[in-house]
Each structure stands twice: as C-alpha cells, then as structure tokens.
Design goal:
The chain is an alpha+beta fold and 305 residues long. It is built from ten helices and eleven strands. The protein has two domains: 3-162 and 300-304, 2-Layer Sandwich (Ribosomal Protein S5, domain 2), CATH 3.30.230; 168-296, Alpha-Beta Plaits (2-Layer Sandwich). The chain has helices at 63-73, 95-110, 117-132, 140-145, 180-185, 193-212, 215-221, 228-231, 238-247, 269-286, and strands spanning 3-13, 22-38, 43-47, 78-84, 148-154, 157-162, 168-174, 252-255, 262-266, 290-296, 303-304. Strands 1, 2, 3, 4, 5, 6 and 11 form a seven-stranded mixed sheet that branches. A four-stranded antiparallel sheet has the order 8-9-7-10. The protein is globular, with a radius of gyration of 19 Å. The mean pLDDT is 96. It binds L-homoserine (HSE). L-homoserine binds next to helix 5.
Length: 305
C-alpha cells in the first residue's frame, strides 16, 4: 500500500476555560486527505477545494509536519498530498490542525505505524507553528486521539484522554475570518491572581464534571475570565449569543479555539436544535452570513477510509 485516504475532523480548542490545554474532536465538519508515499525526498501539496493555501511544504500546515517526519527518518521517502478542505481556514474549529493531524496519521499508516500517537502530536505541532506562530496541541491532540484531551504539558508532551458523557455540540461560524496569530497577539501577557484562581477552579471543575457525568458541574465550569473578555470583542453579537443560548437550555459554551466560531454544549438533540435557532436568529438580526453545525464528540479522531 503506498496511498491512503483519511478523514480529518474539526476540533474545538480551549473548551472555554482551558486555553491551550483542553480540546475536543467533532464528527462534523471534516477534511478528506489523500496521501501517497514516494521515494524521492520531496513533498507535493495540492488543494482540491479552491482555498488559496500555500503549496510550499514548509509553509503549509500539512507539509511542515511531513518535513519533520522525513528529517527524523532520513531515508529516501517523500509524500504527495491532496487536500479536500471542508473546514474553512480561520474559522476557529481547527482547520490547520485537521491538515496537520490528517497528514501525520496518513503518513504513519503508510510507514507501517512507526510512530505512536504522542510522536504524531509532536510532528503535527509543526503545522500549528506555521499557522499561528507557536506550537500548541489543543487541536492536534484531540484530532489524533479523538474525544476530549487534556494537554498537561507540551514540553515534554503529556496528553491525557478525558472520558465524557454524550453531549451535543451546536456551533456557529459567522463568516468572518480571525487569524489565530492575531487572536493570540491581542491577549494580555499577565493575569491577576484572583482571575487565575477562578480559571483553574473552572478547568478542574470541567474535567471533574466530564469524568463524573455531572452536567450541572460542566455547565458551571464553562466560564473563562481571562481570554474571552479580550477575544469576544472580535465576534459580533457574542454576549447576546451566549445569553440566549443558555436561556434556550445549553449547558454553556463560548469561543471555539481562537474564534470566530462559537460553540455550545447541550444534553440532548432538542436543546441543541433550540440553540441553533437562537444562533441563526442572532446572525440574521445582525445581517451577517453564518454556518451552523450540530454534531457530537468524535471519539476516534482522524479515520482511515
Ligand atoms: N489554544 C489556541 C488559541 C487554539 O486559543 O489560540 C487555536 O485554535
């Protein structure tokens, strides 16, 4: 076998309170990638979707991780990659991570599973560095491991899979683009101790709530006093959206990754649909184009087709 096709799913990073340390894999939307193993020490990348992404492997989020794999193996191998992207770049649901994670999982299969999942996250983070200027694993780790992951540390990598109850995710993507690098640039470099205490209480509460199937604790813990107050100014209608979705029965939610997508968690489909109606009504009121998704947690991550 020298060619393989994979489904690389969207992810929600941060999960509101866990900036850079928590992430969740979704069933929808997902990219499809075709990767071929060659023996000529080069990487070619083709987009089959109309997005103007760089074809230079060093500047492409799928290419950069493959460059690292080739560097580490240092043998006569190369890769041809075709990306069918459905996750819009700059949407906040892990578009760059899907390319990076899809590429490394596909390459690893073609190489006879030489690497373990932690290695794959290490490689995939080179793609995130291309996209946002820094390595972070809260999209690539859930994309590769599936489910919800806690990234306790990236140097050295320490990734913990967190079991979760059945939850429904409603996400809205207002059709504006927010670059992760810009959304990181505007953050304050220092936090107040009282805010840090509230934040780590919430992170611990969210993890405990997920592991204990305690929906009320999950809802109470979906609060971000550090990042959201700064980033939410980039998202039209954010405060109203959050208030109305909670009133419609959502457990809670907030900015997905670095935005502009916003996600909400619900305990059942009927609530997830009511939340979607609120999201639609707000963006129709503002007159801003949007896409919505209702989906569930994908416990498998990147899937070989
Ligand atoms: N944790 C990263 C951030 C995720 O919020 O900047 C980007 O998708």
């Amino acid at each position: 076998m020298n060619s393989i096709k994979v489904k690389a799913p969207a992810t929600v990073a941060n999960l509101v309170c866990g900036f850079d340390v928590l992430g969740m894999c979704l069933h929808e939307p997902y990219d499809v990638m075709e990767v071929t193993l060659t023996n000529d020490r080069q990487i070619t990348i083709k987009s089959a979707d109309g997005y103007q992404l760089p074809s230079d492997p060093a500047k492409n989020t799928a290419g950069a991780p493959l460059v690292e794999i080739m560097r580490e193996l240092n043998t006569d191998i190369g890769f041809d990659v075709i990306i069918h992207k459905n996750i819009k770049p700059g949407s906040g649901i892990g578009s760059s991570a899907a390319s990076a994670a899809g590429a490394v999982v596909a390459a690893n299969h073609l190489l006879g599973n030489t690497f373990d999942k932690e290695d794959l996250v290490r490689f995939a983070m080179f793609g995130e560095k291309v996209a946002s200027g820094v390595k972070h694993a809260d999209n690539v780790a859930p994309c590769i491991y599936g489910g919800i992951t806690l990234i306790r540390s990236i140097f050295p990598l320490d990734i913990i899979s967190i079991p979760a109850p059945l939850l429904y995710i409603t996400a809205v993507h207002p059709q504006i683009e927010v670059k992760t690098s810009d959304a990181r640039q505007i953050l304050r470099k220092e936090v107040l101790l009282k805010d840090a205490i509230r934040q780590w209480g919430n992170i611990a509460g969210l993890v405990a709530g997920l592991m204990k199937n305690d929906l009320s604790l999950i809802g109470r813990s979906l609060e971000d006093v550090i990042i959201e107050p700064v980033r939410s100014i980039l998202i039209p209608g954010f405060d109203l959206l959050k208030k109305n979705c909670r009133q419609a029965g959502a457990l809670g939610g907030g900015i997905s990754g670095s935005g502009p997508s916003v996600f909400m968690l619900s305990a059942d489909t009927a609530t997830a649909e009511a939340v979607e109606r609120e999201m639609k009504s707000i963006y129709e009121g503002i007159g801003l184009a949007y896409h919505t998704y209702i989906t569930t947690i994908n416990t498998q991550g990147v899937q070989v087709l």
